Amino acid sequence: MASPLEQFEIHPIIPLQMGNVDVSFTNSSLYMVLTVVITAGFVLLGMRHRALVPGRLQCAVELSYEFIANMLRDTVGNEGRKYFPFVFTVFMFVLLGNLLGMTPYSFTFTSHIVVTFALAFFIFLGVTILGFAKHGLHFFSFFLPPGTPLPMWPLLIPIEIISYLSRPISLSVRLFANMLAGHTLLKVIAGFIAVLGVAGVLPFAFVVVLTGLEILIACLQAYVFTILTCLYINDALHLH
Fold first, then answer.
1. CA–CA distance, 160 with 162 (Å, rounded to integer)
2. Domain ranges of the chain
3. Distance CA 110, CA 95 (A)
4. Is the CB of residue 24 less than 8 Å from the CB of residue 10?
5. SS3 of 21, please?
6. pLDDT by residue (tens digit) across 170-208?
7. Across the strands, what pairs with 35?
8. HSE on the CB side for 1, CA within 13 Å?
9. Which of 22, 77, 172, 198 is 20 to 30 A from 65 (CA-CA)?
């Protein structure tokens, strides 16, 4: 029986070497490119023939647009409209990356901490730069809640700094761990189907139910990742 962790192995498709650095085009790279292509195709094809009465594809694009636009409006306010392209791209990239990983014999790049942490760190860095660009050194007041008594400063300031610096870790680990655990569980239970023969009907039923649950989790994790990004943007713009 194949190892349930075998599905997470990265294999080079086009081996490339730049000095001592391996920059091969891998199966992970392939599915990231596919995600970008599908996202671009989804939006471009959906809005190619804009009609007053939208078709199915145009309706799907408009619903996606409204969903992210409302999320930004609710969390950041009207000032967040300028960040819509970035937030929409993050949502679609994570969502399609999660869903592509649910297709048989595919690869889930969001189940790798190096991918999710790189994405989360880029968001963290961008939000921090945004905070300093808007508020200058006053951005440091974010680490001290207003109205805090002076004796509490030595305790609260380190807590707030640690909490802020842990954002890329918590954001990336949440997505990575959910994808890794869900796919591993599916693979383990699916392995019992062939082994048990006729009695494999029960694990097969579990796999069907868990697959539906995993698709729901894939969508939910994309939503959580995106709404936390919106909240971080809101913190950078409005502080406390």
1. 6
2. 6-238
3. 10
4. no
5. strand
6. 999 999 999 999 888 888 888 777 777 767 788 788 888
7. none
8. 13
9. 172
